[in-house]
Design brief:
Layout (H helix, E strand, L loop, with lengths): L1 H20 L10 E4 L5 E4 L6 E3 L41 H33 L13 H31 L2
Antiparallel strand pairs: 1-2, 1-3
């Protein structure tokens, strides 16, 4: 009896280890559902007439073969970068049109900058140097401190937005 118990324990340990190391069944290729003229359904791994590929969870179809990687351009011996040629189908923009686009972009960014600056001025006025007016629902001092902290955070975000907009405006040609 004792020998049988030991064998069962060993078997259970080996079975548990095997299950732990097992990844489960995995499909090696696409699975197709085929329906013949009589309406019989068959599942197969080969595509035929009347077959439809199934979208199975956990199955990733094999990646299509990739074309060979392009050969990198060789730099001229003088150290200057090789000229980059754009494809012939790449749209070109003339200088006047690009200048108009840049002017529109600058105008939009300046509008956003003015809005953010006005927002910052309003926030600073309400913040009142770190001691904003208490509201009626702030009888609890912790609520007041929470609102002051959120106002401080909002002021910081607005200042960072202004800095980012100014950088963008300075980067326009």
């Amino acid at each position: 009896m004792r020998t049988t118990l030991r064998l069962l324990q060993r078997f259970a340990i080996v079975l548990a280890a095997g299950l732990a190391l097992h990844n489960g069944a995995q499909a090696q290729g696409a699975v197709y559902k085929c329906v013949d003229d009589q309406g019989r359904v068959e599942f197969t791994d080969t595509s035929r007439k009347g077959c439809k590929a199934l979208d199975l969870p956990g199955y990733a179809p094999p990646a299509p073969p990739r074309a060979s990687a392009p050969i990198p351009a060789v730099r001229p011996p003088n150290g200057s970068p090789a000229p980059v040629a754009s494809p012939t189908s790449f749209p070109r923009v003339d200088t006047a049109q690009q200048r108009a686009r840049d002017d529109d972009r600058r105008e939009i960014l300046n509008d956003e900058l003015r809005i953010e600056q006005k927002k910052l001025a309003d926030l600073r006025r309400d913040f009142n140097g770190g001691e904003p007016e208490r509201q009626g629902n702030e009888r609890n001092y912790a609520k007041y401190q929470e609102r002051v902290a959120s106002m401080r955070d909002e002021i910081g975000r607005t200042e960072r937005n202004i800095e980012a907009l100014q950088r963008e405006i300075s980067n326009i040609r």
